[in-house]
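Protein modeling request. Please complete all fields; requests missing the sequence field cannot be processed.
Requester role: graduate student
Desired output: 3D structure, token encoding
Chains: 1
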Amino acid sequence: MKIRLFLISAVILIAGACSEHEVPPSQVLHHHPDSQPAVNSQKTVAAGRGTLLFFMNPNGGPCQMQDQYLQEAKESIQKYADVVYVKTTDDRSKSMFYKYGVRSLPQIILLDHDQQEIRRFSPGIQQPTTLLDVLEAMIK
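Delivered output (140 residues):
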């Protein structure tokens, strides 16, 4: 009984904290520190490029491996979409985790040029070839 009460209290506390601190997406999205942002979101829409949201825990092994794959395929991926890192270690990113319902990491979500979700990859590590195949087919 005490455990249930504690869990319910924790959920209510977390939900209340999230709604009080809504952060605009423009302040949440961060490009990888080793890469330079190709364009801002307004130019992305105008240019018809997509956005690859990469939800990650920088300290997690699978997320580090996915990051390595993204870095290896960076030039090819950037032909179609900008890669945007959303990290668990950044308090400002919490609203993005809630907005997209991300609970398992690593998670990659593809947005079109209007910033609408068009593909959600299965949680876990995605091979660069898989990402590129989808990007080539969906982003024109």
